[in-house]
């Protein structure tokens, strides 16, 4: 069991699951190193934590572009200096690109991979030396249910999230073989009510502008898990040292379906998703 104590570092902390995690960690008395590109959002969150019933002793905010390895290294250095007891790292920041493989150009795919995959890799590498000095430590890497199943229109996102899954599982096994005190969990959220779809970029080859609005509406209709519930599920997973943390009934259903039909899950899943998107 990993105790929720000391300090935690969270990327993508200004909104969504990252913001909810920051609030829940604060309620448990953890110090926080919060990172995001949205400095205003970070300052608002820090003020909310400081004025609310949360009991975080110290909160630092760090402007961070997860797509820049140098920024991540600097964040790790600054976070550890400010919070020597830091023992939990949440590599949460992520983005999305809307469009099929042929509608997304290579630069857009590279941009997404730099954040969704390489950001996780660089974050893990930057914090691991410090975490190994702790008697107890935990890394949490955010993948997605699209790191388990791969629907059409998500070639870039699914590829990056599958990569996060593979990377995280291999590093977890390496840590276990070495007898390390560092634990690692990979998280696979289903539909969580965040702004990721609304904030997504559109593929340069997408010519039907109505598709964006339709895609956002479908996502928001199907995203039934709140960020708070997602954060609470992640914290329970950390406490229990769960190697894989599934979030939401939809994620559990999709995970089970692909186990039974690993090569042919899409047809029945598509029907299910269409019903969910209609709210039925």
Write the layout of secondary structure elements.
Layout: E1 7-11, H1 16-27, E2 31-36, H2 39-51, E3 59-63, H3 69-82, E4 86-91, E5 97-98, H4 106-116, H5 118-131, E6 137-142, H6 155-177, E7 182-189, E8 201-202, H7 210-222, H8 227-239, E9 244-247, H9 249-260, H10 266-277
Parallel strand pairs: 1-2, 1-4, 2-3, 4-6, 5-8, 6-7, 7-9
Main features:
280 residues, 10 helices, alpha/beta
N-to-C CA distance: 39 Å
Spans of at least 5 consecutive residues with low confidence: none
The string of secondary-structure elements, in order, is EHEHEHEEHHEHEEHHEHH
Shape summary: globular
Q: Return the average pLDDT rounded to an integer.
A: 92
- In the sheet with the most strands, the strands line up as 3-2-1-4-6-7-9
User: Radius of gyration in whole Å, from Cα?
Assistant: 18 Å
Determine the oligomeric state from the structure: single chain
Helix content: 40-55%
What is the overall number of helices? 10
What kind of sheet is the major sheet?
7 strands, parallel
Backbone structural class: alpha/beta
**Strand elements, count:** 9
- Strand content of the residues, in percent? 15-25%
């Amino acid at each position: 069991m990993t105790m929720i104590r000391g300090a935690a570092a969270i990327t993508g902390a200004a909104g969504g699951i990252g913001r909810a995690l920051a609030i829940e960690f604060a309620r448990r008395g953890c110090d926080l190193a919060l990172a995001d590109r949205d400095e205003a959002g970070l300052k608002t969150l820090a003020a909310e934590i400081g004025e609310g019933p949360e009991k975080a002793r110290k909160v630092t905010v760090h402007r961070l572009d997860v797509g820049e390895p140098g920024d991540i290294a600097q964040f790790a250095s600054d976070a550890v200096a400010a919070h020597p007891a830091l023992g939990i790292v949440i590599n949460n920041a992520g983005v999305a690109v809307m469009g099929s493989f042929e509608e997304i150009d290579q630069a857009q795919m590279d941009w997404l991979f730099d954040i969704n995959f390489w950001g996780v890799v660089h974050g893990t590498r930057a914090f691991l030396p410090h975490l190994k000095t702790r008697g107890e430590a935990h890394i949490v890497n955010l993948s997605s249910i699209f790191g388990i199943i791969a629907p059409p229109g998500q070639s870039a996102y699914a590829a990056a999230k599958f990569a996060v899954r593979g990377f995280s599982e291999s590093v977890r096994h390496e840590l276990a073989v070495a007898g390390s005190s560092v634990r690692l969990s990979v998280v696979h959220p289903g539909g969580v009510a965040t702004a990721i779809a609304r904030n997504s970029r559109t593929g340069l080859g997408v010519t039907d502008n109505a598709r964006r609005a339709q895609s956002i509406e479908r996502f928001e209709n199907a995203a039934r898990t709140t960020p708070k519930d997602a954060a609470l599920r992640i914290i329970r997973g950390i406490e229990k040292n769960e190697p894989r943390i599934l979030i939401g009934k939809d994620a559990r259903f999709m995970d089970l379906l692909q186990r039974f039909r690993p090569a042919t899950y899409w047809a029945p899943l598509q029907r299910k998703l269409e019903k969910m998107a209609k709210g039925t």
